[in-house]
Design a protein that fits this description.
The chain is mainly alpha-helical. Helices cover about 85% and strands about 0% of the residues. The protein is flat, with a radius of gyration of 17 Å.
């Protein structure tokens, strides 16, 4: 079994949980707001950075692929249950924060696409 990439995945997960808990406390929600999503974002950005710096070996790539295939269905399913419970108990605060986060992501994707177009044209 490949264990490479476990520390990378764990660090991203803990960073995501910390940010999710901070967002939850800022918005007054008794739960984690987007911690798993932030963890996945950190994981994607970090592995992309490692690929660009040629730090990603075949063992790391295989290990990350293996752990990602376990991480996504299990952890996201557990987090979604927690987030649904928090959203039901928190009412409008959770709905508003979800809408704000979704709109932010829409604008962020548009911004990133424009950056990529600018890079490809030069």
């Amino acid at each position: 079994m490949k264990i490479y990439g476990v520390a990378l995945l764990a660090a991203c997960y803990f960073a995501g949980l910390i940010i999710g808990e901070l967002l939850g406390s800022i918005f007054g929600v008794k739960g984690n707001l987007g911690g798993v999503g932030f963890a996945m974002l950190f994981f994607i950005l970090l592995t992309d950075w490692m690929n660009k710096k040629n730090l990603m070996t075949e063992d790391y790539a295989a290990g990350i692929t293996f752990w990602t295939s376990l991480y996504i269905p299990i952890v996201i399913a557990m987090a979604s249950i927690q987030n649904v419970n928090a959203a039901i108990n928190s009412g409008s605060v959770a709905i508003v924060s979800g809408i704000v986060a979704t709109m932010f992501c829409f604008f962020l994707v548009r911004f990133l696409i424009s950056l990529l177009k600018d890079e490809s044209e030069s």
